[in-house]
Design brief:
The chain is rod-shaped and about 225 Å long. The protein is of the alpha+beta class and 208 residues long. Strands 1-6-7 form a three-stranded antiparallel sheet, with no helix packed on it. Helix content is 36%, strand content 20%. Among the domains are: 4-59; 116-203, TolA/TonB C-terminal domain (2-Layer Sandwich), CATH 3.30.2420.
Length: 208
């Protein structure tokens, strides 16, 4: 029993404190109304309420906040340039034109040879001495053309029948007759030179 009473006395003291506080509060309210403090308090409370109402209205009239913007910096974008091949025409190398120099060989200067002075007979044998007797008896006549060459001494180096007389004996006689001739040799620029020519020899029978 000794343990039970102390617990009831504690609870009674707490209730007594609460009850006294309530009485004090009601007494304060009565005093406030009596002295006009309640009116001032009501005004203050009214002002506080109006302020709260105005702030509530302002909060309701405020526009909604803007959407959230992510201010994070995006990662850098790496742009890979395409491999562009530009074909630039290359100017062809300069063409060196080498003019062909044509060597013109000068035409040889043609100097006409100096004129040749023909030979001149210094001795002419008698044709009757070379007329064959058999040809006389046979009444053979004719004209033979003898081709002869005269050397630098004026002698006949060679003689041959160029055109026949029609009689072999007269042709042979004409060659022997031509070889018996003597000449002054032909000259060119004052010097003796060999000279070839044709000599006609005609055999004709006479009445004596």
């Amino acid at each position: 029993m000794s343990a039970y009473y102390p617990q009831n006395s504690g609870m009674f003291s707490k209730r007594a404190v609460v009850f006294v506080a309530i009485l004090v509060f009601h007494a304060f309210i009565i005093w406030a109304f009596a002295t006009g403090l309640a009116t001032s308090g009501a005004r203050i409370i009214n002002t506080i309420l109006q302020t709260n109402i105005i702030q509530t209205q302002k909060e309701q009239e405020l526009p909604p906040p803007p959407p959230h913007v992510d201010l994070k910096v995006p990662p850098p974008v790496s742009v890979v340039a395409p491999d562009v091949q530009i074909n630039i025409p290359v100017a062809p190398p300069p063409i060196h034109v080498v003019a062909a120099v044509r060597r013109v060989t000068p035409a040889p200067i043609h100097i006409p040879p100096a004129p040749v002075l023909p030979p001149r007979a210094t001795y002419a044998p008698d044709i009757n001495d070379y007329y064959p007797d058999a040809s006389r008896r046979n009444n053979e006549e004719g004209r033979a053309l003898v081709h002869l060459c005269i050397d630098t001494r004026g002698r006949v180096a060679s003689a041959e029948v160029g055109a026949t007389s029609g009689h072999p004996m007269l042709d042979d006689a004409a060659v022997r007759l031509a070889k018996a001739y003597r000449f002054k040799p032909a000259t060119q620029r004052g010097k003796p030179v060999q000279f070839c020519t044709n000599m006609p020899i005609k055999f004709v029978l006479t009445g004596g």
